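Quick one, tokens below:
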């Protein structure tokens, strides 16, 4: 799983990406996470794009431009010190995408 965490300058997303990668590893998942800016979304090879809360107004345009699922992180994501809540959030996006229609 290749996950891109996006924020304005890439600084705070670096912390989120690192914490997410560590939480995924602790859960036995081999996820690649990296931080980037909005420009790194386009043309990238990502399985999931997680946007900082301040990108909520651009969610639809970013979704329209990429093939991967795109979601806005919760506003309190930067307080998630061990990455476990961010991991649960990412897994929920992936699980929803992989659930066949007509099942719960």
């Amino acid at each position: 799983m290749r996950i891109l965490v996006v924020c304005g300058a890439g600084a705070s997303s670096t912390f989120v990406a690192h914490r997410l990668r560590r939480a995924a590893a602790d859960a036995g998942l081999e996820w690649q996470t990296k931080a980037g800016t909005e420009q790194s979304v386009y043309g990238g090879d990502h399985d999931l794009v997680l946007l900082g809360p301040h990108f909520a107004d651009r969610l639809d345009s970013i979704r329209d431009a990429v093939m991967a699922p795109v979601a806005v992180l919760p506003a309190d994501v930067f307080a998630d010190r061990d990455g476990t809540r961010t991991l649960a959030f990412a897994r929920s996006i992936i699980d929803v995408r992989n659930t066949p229609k007509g099942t719960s």
